[in-house]
Amino acid sequence: MSALSQMSSPYHLSYYYSSSSHKGRDDVIVIDKSECTQIITRGMKECFKLEHLQKRLPIVEWLPKYSWGKLVKDIIAGLTVGLTAIPQGIAYAVVAGLQPQYGLYSGFMGCFVYFFLGSCKDITIGPTAIMALMTQEHVQAHGPEFAILLTFLSGIIIFSLGVLRLGFLVEFISMPVTVGFTSAAAVTIASSQIKGLLGLPGEARAFLDSWINLFTNGLELRLWDTILGVTTILVLILGKKMKQVSEKWKGETPTKLVLKKTVWLLGLARNAVVVIIGTILAYILSIHDIKPFILTGNVTPGLPPFKPPPFTTEENGTVLTFLDMVREMGSALIVVPLIGILESIAIAKAFG
């Protein structure tokens, strides 16, 4: 009688051996339905164990421990970061060659996801100067559709690395590489802001272009833009020092405590303070038809419709397919996700 006919259930997982005297065997592998159910059940239980959930969803770990005492500080931090992210996002959109609203979209959408999945409070979620500069090349050549698709594909690549548990690869990135990248990013970011800081005319799309433009058009700087920009930098540095000094103050009198708390709060919210003051100043001057500063201009209100990224586009009357767009992106599909990972690692190691 065959092995299959001896089975009471067609789902049993086992090996059946021939009764022949030779050493060979007839292997019949079939699946036991009950055992499959048990395996799946065990797997599901493993996936939903608290320690596994805490690794995949950090909010499960920190939310039960959250205290109302942290709420005030978090509100201040949220307002500070949010008010900083608005001009920052607009500036990065301009650097990337996009309309200002694109910087605002990318500046806040990632925060909703990071609320559940984030594990490092110091990570920058949103556009960065390096990413904007790397995206600019494709926007200038092909339009915003390429920037949107590049962003989507970069996110898919980084997400896939996480799902496949390839995060251990970042352990092979040495500290000199991280420090070098951080230093290069700081220099590149500072260079990219020279044109806007001084109100210079001309083009400054790359690192060298920024300095060439400075020496070429340096005498054409806008005085009031320069004063406002330099003053903002000085206020931010002073606010940081004020916060550090206030933390060292001693004294328990009510007046000293109030003064200490006020100085500490102003130092902590320094980014929000300069943004609010700068906005109010520009508004008051503009309603009196006085325009000493270069303003951002009109920003398209509202949110874009929720839809998939463009997998095809039209350029000069020619329809580019998804493969054509990927081919045009070239090495950016590897470099952009890698830069995103390196930026996160550099910040995490610096503040973690």
Automatic annotation (TrEMBL):
It is found in: Membrane. The chain crosses the membrane at residues 75-95, 107-134, 146-168, 223-242, 263-285, 329-351. Coiled coil: none annotated. Residues 71-351 form the SLC26A/SulP transporter domain. InterPro entries: SLC26A/SulP_dom, SLC26A/SulP_fam. One of its GO terms (biological process) is transmembrane transport. It comes from the Eukaryota. Keywords: Membrane, Transmembrane, Transmembrane helix. GO terms for cellular component: membrane. Its main location: membrane. It is a multi-pass membrane protein. This is SLC26A/SulP transporter domain-containing protein.
